């Protein structure tokens, strides 16, 4: 069963969600601001943060950042009535499982929470926007959180997150074949690398990860990720 931290100044919503989760056997803490959430996280280790975006004193994006400094494996879901606000980009860069609109679709949120994984962050380097979006969605469906880079310079701009795995296209803009992989391995040495490529002959000689040839079986890729994630639990 999961341990969830719900942060929202709409107390009625937060307590209703907590009741649903506790009826399913989970443990839930409800607070109404970022400072109270930081205090709660000092006393207990949570699996998932569910936070409102606009709150007095500290935004949801800032809260995700501060809690991840303390607990990098914490999964996070942001809810907001303002999906176009600029600060959401900060939350996405830190890696969030989902951004949900207000009023919150509670059944969808509960389903996400039951799948969310601690230490489930994946770095995805892919310049094909359609494929990147598709992979992000299927990862989310399995409870994994993705942060996305679409070029070699984008890899350099990734936040100092803590991925357990990286899915890297061997050929992306901004550098020679394999440069994005080199930078990912340099920045995230503890992440298991998966190269996703139509050009396996271009793999560097010292590559010790897994090679997935395009076109690939998404189910098999997810199964391999789940195996790696389970092996680190």
TrEMBL record:
InterPro entries per UniProt: Bact_response_regulator, CheY-like_superfamily, Sig_transdc_resp-reg_receiver
Task: Tell me yes or no: is Phosphoprotein among this UniProt entry's keywords.
Answer: yes
- PROSITE patterns, per the entry: RESPONSE_REGULATORY (PS50110)
Record domain Response regulatory: where: 3-117, 121-229
Where is the PTM 4-aspartylphosphate found along the chain? 52, 169
Top-rank taxon, per record: Bacteria
What is the protein named? Response regulatory domain-containing protein
């Amino acid at each position: 069963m999961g341990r969830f931290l719900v942060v929202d100044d709409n107390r009625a919503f937060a307590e209703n969600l907590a009741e649903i989760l506790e009826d399913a056997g989970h443990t839930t803490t409800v607070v109404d601001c970022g400072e109270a959430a930081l205090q709660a996280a000092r006393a207990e280790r949570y699996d998932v943060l569910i936070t409102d975006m606009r709150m007095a004193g500290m935004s949801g994006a800032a809260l995700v950042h501060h809690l991840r400094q303390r607990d990098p494996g914490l999964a996070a879901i942001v809810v907001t009535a303002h999906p176009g606000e600029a600060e959401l980009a900060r939350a996405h860069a830190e890696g969030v499982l989902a951004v949900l609109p207000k009023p919150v679709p509670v059944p969808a949120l509960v389903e996400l929470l039951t799948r969310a994984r601690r230490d489930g962050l994946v770095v995805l380097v892919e310049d094909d926007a359609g494929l990147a979006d598709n992979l992000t969605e299927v990862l989310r469906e399995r409870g994994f959180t993705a942060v996305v880079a679409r070029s070699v310079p984008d890899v350099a701009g990734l936040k100092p997150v803590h991925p357990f795995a990286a899915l890297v296209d061997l050929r992306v803009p901004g550098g020679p074949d394999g440069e994005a992989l080199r930078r990912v391995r340099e920045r995230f040495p503890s992440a298991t690398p998966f190269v996703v490529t139509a050009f396996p002959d271009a793999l560097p000689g010292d590559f010790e990860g897994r090679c997935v040839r395009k076109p690939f079986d998404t189910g098999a890729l997810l199964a391999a990720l789940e195996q790696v994630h389970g092996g680190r639990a």
